[in-house]
Fold each of these.
Amino acid sequence: MFRSTKFWHFSMAPRRNRRVMVVAVYLAIAAMPLAQALTHPTELYRNVGFMVPLILLLVARNVFGAIVPAHTWDDRRFEMADTRGVDIVSVTNPERNQKIKQIPIDPEPDERDIAVRNSIFFTAFKGIAAYSVLLWLATTAFLNPHMPYGIYGMVIIQYAMFPLMVMACTLPQAMILWDEPDLPEEA
Amino acid sequence: MSPKDQDARNGSQLYNRIAVLRAERGLSRQELADAVGVNYQTVGYLERGDYNPSLELAFRISEFFKLPVEVIFSREPFKPLSEEVYGHTNEALKKDR
């Protein structure tokens, strides 16, 4: 279930620490669009500004991913593990072989990991589905040309879509980090 | 909802003696985990009663310890060994003091 019980110098074995991490990451993700919304609401997705939420999202995914695998799409460590055998026998780039050897490979999920993961994904899916319905209802109001929102209607929908993307990409990881009881420190 | 929450809701909390048996045999969580084919974290959750094992895992554990499955797992809390072997109850011990 957990790749590591440490993040930098912080122990992630106690659930309290993991919850602090989840709150901090989500606050960081929310801060940028929120600041933008309060200062220049119509400029969120202009120029390269739209990249900032995406970058924050990838950072969050990797911060969470240092502790728990994402499972939402193919994970790098699994891919590296799959090609490891081929790369190690290669004589053309021994330095790369050494680096690949050092990548910790995720253990196969056991029955508890699978049970927890299924349960968490099911709960996350319900949340994401409910939010999608609300979002669709919002589009009927805010993207309606007969309503007086103008450009702001589109901006509101853009802001409202961001949490959906964040939830779809990181919510299961965050819920595992949030829910799992304290881990045994030593093996 | 976590598996433990589901177990609590179904009233199906299982008690076990894995921690005692592991300590008796001087095994680490990792060694026991490797022997029965789970992650060491799962052994910790089992010991704390945070997770109820599948029937297959319960049998693998009982085979590993070479004990009947009902000696390791129970739906009722286990009595302390002192009480089970010598008949000492906590109340009697408190009286003696």
Amino acid sequence: MKTLKNNAWLGLLALALAACVTGCSSDSVTPNEDIPAVTAEGSAGTAVAISLAMTQVGPYILDPFKAVEDITISGDDVNGTVHIDFRDGPDGNPAEAGVAAWAHLYTDAGSPVVVNVLEYGGQAAFDLDVTGSITRTPDTVTILAGSGGSMTSGDRTTTFTVDGLIIDGGSYPAAGTVNIVPDDGPTASVTFDGSNIARAVVGMAMYDVNLDTGAVTDAVVPI
Amino acid sequence: MRLRFLSVLLVSLPVLVVAGGAVAQDLEELLVQVGEEYATGYTAPFLHGFGANQNANLYSTAHIPWNGLTFGVGVKVMGTHLNEDDQTFRKVIRNVDLGDFDPALAGITGDVVLSGPTIFGNADTPGRLQGYVGGMEVINQPTITGLLDTRFVPLVTPEFYAGGIAGFKAVVRWFPEMELGDYGKTSYMGYGLQWNANGVLQTLPVNVMVGFFSQKLEVGTLLESTGSSYHLVVSKDFPAFTAYGGYALESSEMDISYTEETSGTTIAFTTEGVQDNRLTLGVTLDILMKLNLEMGHGKLTTYSAGLMFGF
């Protein structure tokens, strides 16, 4: 009888130990907070960065002196290497830069173009995959649907698509829209009109983004 | 055999203290490079795990003689097993003047993200301080690496007990105050009292004991840790071993204080241990010496072992 009791105790003990060893893990005691989600204004700011990148890199498609297949950009605001594949038409034959009718601008994986986007040192790295239709006299590139890329700044990544953006050699895109999808914030679309002020729409909010300074302000809408 | 064990214990204690002091010195050398917000995230698993360790292995049986002396001396080793998420941390400070972190950005409001290995994270990879404005990263500074890459928060402590009168037993954890060079004094003192109820409740099929323990550890000027436990324990003796279990209400608290080297600012903060109760299961083998193995589970899980010489 005593042996039976002892066995029962041992069985109970073994069961409890097994349950604890297999099922007892510690709670986490360390803060692991999420990176703050991008606000609407932040999305507009991201739009500025992407707009600046397109404004800085896009004209390389047009400039016959710069438009070689591998372009290393080294400047105050833009640094990196982009490749441009010139063709005589969509998926056509290779063509000289100055007479090409179609171009594919892209970056190598892992070698982004780095753009300074804020006067106080903000940087963003861009992976680009852009195709454009080129017309001549005056030279103009219309960025085709399906173009886009991704922008990484710190731990944030934002994907974007470019549709109908027109680059004509001026300082700013003449027309078109860039659509922006942050990984943790509201989507935004930015429309260009050739001036240094682009209009960003984020949900119900509208912002004016200054392409020279990077400043984002509430849009002034005429009544 | 027993005398040899005592000799090893007495020789080992100063070594353990010095080793612990050296680790604490390494910790201070890392902490002085960061501010309070970073330090609280970086040290969190240590602050919480250390308290859980202190309150571990406070008993190895509920049996205490009512009329026969009992005495023991030995060493206890504890390890609180951290959640795997506790080897890294990320802390966010929202809407702050970024000038507090980079003077060039004074007056600009943004979010700051502090992240990287905790004290028990990767000892080769530094953490980061990032500042964001409008979704864009404007600050990216390396910070400090982890100190020990492990998921176990370790603690070793000597322990002494004496009792056997009317079911009472006094327990002491102590080592003498030691000067660790420029680093300061290190001292440790804990005491507790346990009482066996079987002298009153003689028909109980198991031994029953209640007790408390209070302790305080000071390591230089860097840290001070206190802990206390109130526990109810039952045990059952078998040939050659004792099985025991207990439930404890407990608390712990750690103060950290250091001087940030870049600003000269004194950083001081206090963290209360997250664990407020635990269930303990263990066995004590009584072959020449008493070796006990136990696991305590509350919000944290602590494994511990003790090797006691006594009777």
